[in-house]
Amino acid sequence: MAADAIVIGAGVIGLSTAIRLAESGARVRVWSAEPPADTTSAVAAALWGPDFADPGRAWAYDTEPELTRLAADPATGVHLCRGTQASDIQDEPPPWVERLTDVRMLEPDELMPGMRVGLKTTAPVVDMPRYLDYLTARLDVEIEIRRIASLAEPAAEAPVVLNCTGVGARELAGDEGVRPFWGQHVVVENPGLDEFYIEAVLGAEWAGFFPHGDHVVLGGVTRPDVWDRTPDALVAAGIVARCSAVDPRLADARVVEHRVGLRPWRAKPRLATERVGAALVVHNYGHGGMGVSHSWGSAAAVLGLL
Fold this sequence. Notes:
This protein is of the alpha/beta class. It folds into 2 domains: 1-77 and 127-176 and 266-306, NAD(P)-binding Rossmann-like Domain (Rossmann fold); 81-125 and 179-263, D-Amino Acid Oxidase, Chain A, domain 2. The chain has 7 helices and 15 strands. Strand 14 (270-276) and strand 15 form a beta hairpin. The longest helix has 15 residues, at 56-70. The protein is globular.
């Protein structure tokens, strides 16, 4: 098939980038080593939130209006949710607090033990399996399951290649700055929660839960440089215990599923171009745990490079 561009990767970054290209009039193909439902994006919780530094912060600001628009349609998997954000990192609110919606700062007696600052806000929360289905349908292009060894392969078939391969970019782009940050979530039946909760912490474990109608996604944990995507029963028990300390209703909620993904961590997301043969390659990867928040903003930035 003739194509103006080939997108490599079918997670939230790849699909959002492909949609922006297709809706600008380009003929787009998508190659992926695995279907969207098996990507790390499918494992995400996922709550929109700003980043602490540009370009991620600007991308997040650009993404929020699109997610808010999509929240009007339940079929997208996006909904606006009230909830709590807390932190043990500092005593002051985050620098982007004024960009949040319906903010109320919490009093000290409203914080969980160990948390130093907290707020309530309303933000887009995304049921990722349903959202990826929506993005795939919106793109309306068959995703070709194809594992490649070199960017020269797509470069031989299209004049533009978009590298949105997440942790796969470590090998495919020869970028040793990309590292897997292993994460696990526990999905439980919803015992009646309608608000999210998330902690930003200095450590590798925290409490976070996100209601999506009939189920709740619980987290969180991170382990750098772990590639094995096997769920860990002890990690799962710790996640449930931490979340139950915040809302006791979660203690006896029936576990539906365990999800494991590899966050594509990089010191700074890579948005850059290079030539591979006659093709222009645009790299768009390394978003860590901010892929959903960066997605539409980074996709727009990709178009700006073409």
